[in-house]
Amino acid sequence: MKSIALQATQSGTRKVMAFIVFEGIDGCGKSTQIKLLADFLKSKNIGFILTREPGGTPLGEEVRKLLLRTNGEDVPHPRAELLLYEAIRAQHVEVVIKPAMNQKKWVISDRFSASTTAFQSAGRNLKLNDIKWLNAYATDGIKPELTILIDISVSECQKRLSQRNLSTGHDRFEQEEQEFHEKVRLSYLAQAEEDSKGWIVIDGTTSVSQIHQQIIDDLIHRNWTTH
Fold first, then answer.
1. 24, 83, 169, 180: least surrounded by Cβ within 10 Å?
2. How many CA atoms lie within 13 Å of 32's alpha carbon, on the beta-carbon side?
3. 163/109 Cα distance (integer angstroms)
């Protein structure tokens, strides 16, 4: 992906736009941190959009319902599941992400292609090379400039989900066995290790305010924004 221009400010430089993705196993606290980052960007008068996967577009939101539902017997085969995710992503990139980037807006997404590597390759045991090719095709080569992995243990994940979903119930992925989530978590950590410049890993068991400050400190360190 082409580099993004920087614009001068009185305190140095900041990005005209950036593509940032939050990743992590379910219950890690992504949603809370995305909201806090959005509030921070508003305070800096930085234009942005919030989006998510699966979803992000009307088509994506409809397919999301199929992917996460727990009732009925028509559960997608892992390969079909993978292709549904990639179809959502292709639509998401063309309809939401590219237009926002062209308008020089920051894009903040709850999950992106790293989730497919973690859940469908590690979790579902599908071939990693197939997923890499499909990710590249669906994204048209667009990659996040920063992926923020909020890391928690699977036991902590299950504890949080049991509290969060007492009334709403668990979706199809949240109902998976502990081994599945362990493999997903290890995949995330491996991806982060492979691309240490493009990822930051944050301990999700620290306080909400501490996690938020680590994220802001990283953006400042990259000269993407100012204090």
1. 169
2. 14
3. 25
Q: Which 3 state secondary structure label does DSSP give 44?
A: coil
CA separation for the pair 134, 43 (Å, rounded): 37
Domain ranges within the chain, ordered by starting residue: 39-146+157-202
Question: Mean pLDDT of successive 10-residue segments in the chain (227 residues)?
Answer: 46 78 94 97 96 96 87 82 97 98 97 97 96 98 97 90 63 79 96 97 97 97 89
User: Tokens for 47?
Assistant: 């234009």
With beta carbons less than 8 A apart as the criterion, state whether 224 and 217 touch: no
Name the β-bridge partners of 148: 22, 200
Work out the burial of residue 92: count CB atoms within 10 Å of its CB; fewer than 13 is exposed, 13-18 middle, 19 or more buried.
Answer: buried
Q: Please provide the CATH number assigned to the domain covering 39-146+157-202.
A: 3.40.50.300
For residues 110 and 30, is the Cβ–Cβ distance under 8 A? yes
Distant-in-sequence, close-in-space partners of 218: CB < 8 Å, separation ≥ 6: 146, 148, 200
How many CB atoms are closer than 10 A to CB 1?
Answer: 12
Sign, Cα dihedral of 204, 205, 208, 211: negative
Q: Are 160 and 27 in contact (CB under 8 A)?
A: yes
